[in-house]
Write a structure and sequence with these properties.
By secondary structure, the chain is of the alpha+beta class. The protein folds into five domains: about 15-210, Beta Polymerase, domain 2, CATH 3.30.460; about 370-465, Hydrophobic Seed Protein, CATH 1.10.110; about 490-655; about 655-700, no CATH class; about 705-925, Alpha-Beta Plaits (2-Layer Sandwich), CATH 3.30.70. Mean pLDDT is about 85; it is low at about 1-20 and about 915-928. Belongs to the GlnD family.
């Protein structure tokens, strides 16, 4: 095997790294004779450390951008690999031995990303040992010697040994190999072998054409996006493989290289360039900016983690953002500004793909046959067909008639057509003309039709990705790429909004009838359908501006809706919905919906059944669009119950019966189900509950409680625990009957935490006999019912051990698994709100803080230590944020109104929420 050096050519890898190669080769081969392998390995390790340190120091000192650093690291690595190659030749000489014929000459080739001349700090080095004929035993020993040296240096090496013919044959059957060979770059060895391969591979590409390679890359991209995220707006993006990432840009390069043999994208600029000018200078600069920015992010990711990390998780986002110089501006944190820049870059990559890929296809494969539209309506609208897909007629100038962009989308929707790639290209290039349509009544009507029509989310996403929406609705541009630095929202604000529009469509089609039956039924009853769709479009339009985004969004709606063609009545409805779009969810999950005042307050705000229907549907769409783990059966149940109770008030129901009348009805309904009890037993049970108890449960639950209490008294049991799985609500109901004492709720909550159960709601009742009847609704970690028999049995045992003092709660809670490191970067400052307005009978405490095992135990213990009794608890989590609400009274059964007691309560709760950091946290008190 001949690995002899070819003379360096200008611009060769060896010439790019003169400070590495000559000195290192001289050290490895003093006087032309190789030093021992162990000494050589030490020399190489020191040189590798110098290379890596030099690039890292220059990059972190902001002397190099990510792309420049990647190129410099690749060039320096070329020198290292070249020196190892020279040392290998000296250690494993080739040539005639004992008269045998010399083995084939071999060229050392860089492939893959390394072949493109860019290298990330912890990326693989892909090498190809290329020859005309299969290498012999001595050649294989040389390859093995070189690879072991590279591995001993700690480098990750991808390698292959092939002949030129094998390369062509493998490329013919495997698009991945073909892609790697597109980037093949000569490093060392016999340059004539590489030249022959280059010529053969160019002939192969010309003979095979672009069509098959293009289809393979599109399929590969679709699979990759499905794996790493089909949206460019996921809040923990994969910088390399996700949509809008580096791999998408590399795919464009591969297509251009395959079709035209270009080395750099600027070669596609100008009428004399391959393809006749596929890119404008501005577009070429946009590609370079995106390429450079993503490489910079990638370098920081590698250096921060010390590994080939490509996913920008929550814990890494503030670090990388700070290293790149993003600081707080106005209401936006530095990390949010950094992530917005990243998302806007990803959006640009998506647009550039839409723009360049069809142009490459057209230039390489020829202009598709554009046929006149099949009907007069399409032809009149300026729409034609190519390959069965819709595009603009060749004689239409989009700049002169920008409304044709909306006509194209509507026509494709109405006729079930896809948009041709050339149509996407035209939309990207002409999106800026949407500015002219803002005051065009016909264009606004078209837009409203698309927004509220079939498959609205699909077409709104298209209009967003090509840049149309940001020009057409200026306020939309402010939420594009805007993320909230939390673990609750999966998407950026505009992507969440489009997802919510998609949920509306799914509700109308009946696709969610089992998951959200009430909303699925109600959406067919709403009279203000257009207003509903516009309200969903605008519900988060004012996020990121500071202040209440609901109030600001309501003002935007008042200005925008008339422009879109909505009537004054519809405009007022949209503004009201945007203003109150959080009302239903906040009430359902943070307030006691068994408290009549809660229902009456929301009914007073809503005032009409139509608005209640609209608000419920909007709430479901908003929640389901947040992320796949937000919606569950329990939340659906709470929303459903709140809706029916408010609807009853609006129909004149709830406000009519007085409290005593309602209690009497509940007692009578329960008594009717207790035929198996004696008269004395029945009267005894009916005497146990205070009014609040009778109004908190349905008759069937009262009957279960009666039998439970009868058994407990018959057996003189100090503690009774019953559990019931409610599959329809995705919860398990746990009922505890025992002697009441201070801190009871806290000890039960601690036991449930140790058992792995998450409390989502609770009702706490002290009966007239001094016993506590506490009901908890719990879920497992996945948001489902806690239903495994062995876990339910253990749960009952842990409650008994906790109440008897045999379970050391603090120690057991301390053993529970903590949250992943990537989530700890999300800051949740402790916050306490004490409200004496929300209920006529209780003080309502809302605590906000970072969720953790045992949090509810700590918080309720603090409440009990202040001498307060908990009447009910409502537990909600938003990612890593816990929002827990408690209805409490003092020992006399009254609200807590003394300022000194309120301050002590607040301080205790902040301490329970925040631990060591709590002393500096801010809390808010609203008391009357």
């Amino acid at each position: 095997m001949s690995l002899a050096h070819a003379p360096d050519a200008a611009g060769s890898p060896a010439a790019e790294a003169p400070e590495v190669l000559p000195d290192l080769v001289a050290a490895l081969l003093p006087g032309g004779r190789p030093i021992p392998r162990d000494e050589a390995l030490g020399q190489l390790r020191r040189q590798l450390g110098r290379i890596q340190g030099k690039v890292q120091r220059a990059f972190e000192a902001h002397e190099l951008s990510g792309l420049a650093a990647a190129r410099w690291l690749a060039a320096l690595t070329d020198g290292l690999v070249g020196a190892i190659h020279a040392y290998t030749i000296a250690m494993v000489p080739s040539g005639p031995e004992g008269g045998t014929q010399a083995e084939p000459s071999v060229a050392l080739i860089a492939t893959g990303g390394y072949g493109r001349g860019v290298l990330a700090p912890y990326s693989d080095i892909d090498l190809l040992f290329l020859s005309d004929q299969p290498v012999g035993p001595q050649g294989r020993r040389a390859v093995e010697f070189m690879l072991y040296l590279l591995w001993d240096l700690g480098l990750k090496v991808g390698h292959a040994t092939r002949t030129v013919a094998e390369c062509i044959e493998d490329a013919r059957g495997d698009a991945t190999i073909q892609t790697a060979l597109i980037d093949a770059r000569y490093l060392a060895g016999d340059a004539t072998v590489h030249a022959r391969f280059d010529a053969a591979f160019a002939a192969f590409r010309k003979q095979s054409g672009l069509a098959a390679f293009l289809a393979a890359k599109r399929a590969e991209r679709s699979a990759r996006h499905a794996r790493y995220g089909d949206s460019p707006f996921l809040v923990e993006p994969h910088v390399k493989e996700g949509r809008g990432g580096l791999r998408d840009l590399q795919t464009l390069y591969w297509l251009a290289r395959h079709a035209f043999g270009v080395q750099r994208m600027p070669e596609l600029v100008g009428k004399d360039s391959p393809g006749g000018g596929l890119l404008t200078p501005q577009e070429a600069r946009a590609i370079r900016r995106a390429w450079n920015f993503l490489w910079t992010v990638r370098f920081h990711l590698h250096y921060v983690t010390g590994r080939a990390e490509e996913r920008l998780t929550f814990d890494l986002q503030p670090v990388v953002g700070a290293r790149m110089g993003y600081t707080r501006h106005g209401v936006q944190d530095g990390v949010e500004r950094f992530m917005k820049h990243l998302f806007l870059t990803a959006r640009d990559v998506v647009r550039l793909t839409r723009l360049l890929e069809p142009a490459i296809e057209r230039a390489a494969l020829g202009v598709p046959a554009v046929l006149p539209a099949g009907d007069a309506g399409l032809a009149q609208a300026g729409i034609a067909l190519a390959d069965g897909k819709a595009l603009f007629s060749p004689d239409r100038d989009v700049a002169a008639d920008p409304a044709i962009m909306l006509r194209l989308v509507r026509a494709a929707r109405d006729r079930g057509l896809e948009l041709h790639p050339l149509a996407h290209r035209a939309l990207v290039r002409n999106a800026r003309y949407a500015v002219r349509l803002r005051d065009d009544a016909d264009a606004n009507a078209l837009f409203l039709d698309i927004l509220s029509g079939r498959d609205a989310a699909r077409w709104m996403r298209t209009l967003n990705e090509v840049g149309f929406l940001s020009r057409f609705i200026p306020d939309w541009a402010r939420i594009v790429g805007l993320m909230q630095f939390d673990t609750y929202h999966v998407f950026t604000v505009e992507e969440h909004t489009i997802e919510a529009i998609g949920v509306l469509g799914a509700l109308e089609r009946g696709d969610l009838a089992e998951i959200a039956p009430v909303a699925s039924e109600l959406i067919g009853q709403v009279q203000s359908r257009r207003a509903l769709y516009v309200a969903v479009l605008l519900h988060d339009i004012a996020k990121g501006r500071g202040g209440d985004h609901s109030e600001l969004g309501a003002e935007i709606a008042l200005d925008l809706c008339p422009r879109l063609g909505l009537t004054p009545e519809e405009t007022e409805t949209v503004s009201w919905l945007v203003l109150n779009h959080l009302l239903v969810s906040q009430t359902a999950f943070k307030r006691d919906i068994d408290d009549p005042k809660t229902i009456l307050d929301i009914a007073e705000t809503v005032q009409s059944p139509e608005r209640l229907r609209l608000l419920l549907v909007l709430t479901v769409a908003d929640m389901r669009a947040v992320g796949p783990k937000v919606w569950n059966g329990w939340k659906a149940t709470l929303l459903r119950e709140l809706y029916w109770r408010v609807a009853e008030v609006l129909a004149g129901g709830l406000s009519v019966p007085e409290r005593d009348t309602r209690v009497a009805r509940a007692r009578a309904a329960a008594a009717a189900l207790l035929d198996d009890l004696t008269e004395a037993e029945r009267e005894h049970f009916l005497s146990l509950g205070y009014p609040g108890y009778w109004l908190s449960f349905d008759p069937e639950t009262h009957a279960r409680h009666a039998h439970m209490i009868r058994e407990a008294e018959r057996d003189a049991a100090p503690l009774t625990v019953r559990s019931r799985v409610i599959e329809a609500r995705a919860v398990t109901e746990v009922t505890v009957y025992c002697t009441d004492h201070p801190g009871l709720f806290s000890r039960i909550a601690g036991a449930l935490a140790v058992a792995g159960a998450s409390i989502v709601d609770a009702r706490i009742h002290t009966m007239t006999n001094g016993m506590a009847l506490d009901t908890f609704w719990v879920q497992d970690a996945a948001g489902g019912a806690f239903d495994a028999p062995h876990r339910l049995a253990r749960l009952a045992v842990l409650i008994e051990q906790s109440l008897s003092g045999r379970l050391r709660l603090e120690a057991e809670i301390g053993k529970l698994r903590r949250e992943p490191a990537r989530l700890r970067a999300v800051q949740i400052p402790p916050r306490v709100v004490i409200d004496n307005h929300a209920s006529n009978s209780h003080t309502v405490i809302e605590v906000n803080g970072r969720d953790r095992p045992g949090l509810l135990h700590d918080v309720t213990a603090a409440i009990s230590e202040q001498g307060l009794q908990i009447g009910s608890a409502h537990i909600t989590t938003y990612g890593v944020r816990a929002v827990d609400v408690f209805y409490v009274k003092d020992v006399f059964g009254l609200k807590v109104e003394n300022e000194r007691k309120l301050k002590a309560l607040r301080d205790a709760l902040v301490g329970a929420l925040g631990g060591p950091e709590a002393a500096t946290a801010e809390a808010e008190v609203r008391a009357v």
